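Appendix B, example 12.
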Amino acid sequence: MEMRDLGSTGLRVSAIGLGTVKLGRTAGLKHPRPFEIPDDDAARALLARAQDLGINLIDTAPAYGVSEERLGALLTGQRDRWVVCTKAGEEFDGERSRFDFTPRAIRASVERSLRRLRTDALDCVLLHSDGDDAHVVRDSGAMGALERLRDEGKVRAVGASTKTPEGAAMAVERSDVVMLACNPRETGDDAAIESARARGVGVLVKKALMSGRLGDGDGGAEPATTDPVEAALRFVFARRGVSSVVVGTINPEHLSDNVAAAERALRAH
């Protein structure tokens, strides 16, 4: 798996990262098919497959239920092999999400993530926007809280996962790393991706495969015979500012297929 610079952070990440919401939460998600949270043996097998495939980036969040706690245990003894990205500002209480972007809440969230993930420092922490990106990034004081935690050495890189093109543009101006949506149906963040590249800001892409809803004909200008996953990844990797595409799965074979499609897509560029 190709490794890429995560902007100017000094971190190197695999072109495909592993999203882990399905390790910790089933309720309230917009996935098209139901699933069961895997047990520890299945989760270990998934992580082992990811490592065998050359993946080193794991994406998690307090909003992903018990994902952080499980990863803390599962990664014991191998923390240095992984770049771990988590988030702050959103929590899931088992029924609904709750948001708090006050500096005090952001600090408490990061310190809790450190304990849950059993690490002395987090590689990346992003603000988990509730959709009001301007408030989250510019007005809440949350970004300043993350910057102070970075200065203290508890976090290596900070930024935001946004939901609007305007918010993406704001986040790029103040972040080390941003997480943005990009797929053949969602191109509103393209300008922010290019701006991030120019500024040396790392870009993690979410929703590249449309949260499991990718189907035939969703590959933009790609031929109809092209695998839709490969076509979507070609579409994303055509943007030079992209550091990594985060895909969420609990199926090792599905992960292998996604990586194979990514490698074909990367060769096309």
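The radius of gyration is 17 Å. Residues 3-267 form a domain with the TIM Barrel fold (CATH 3.20.20.100).
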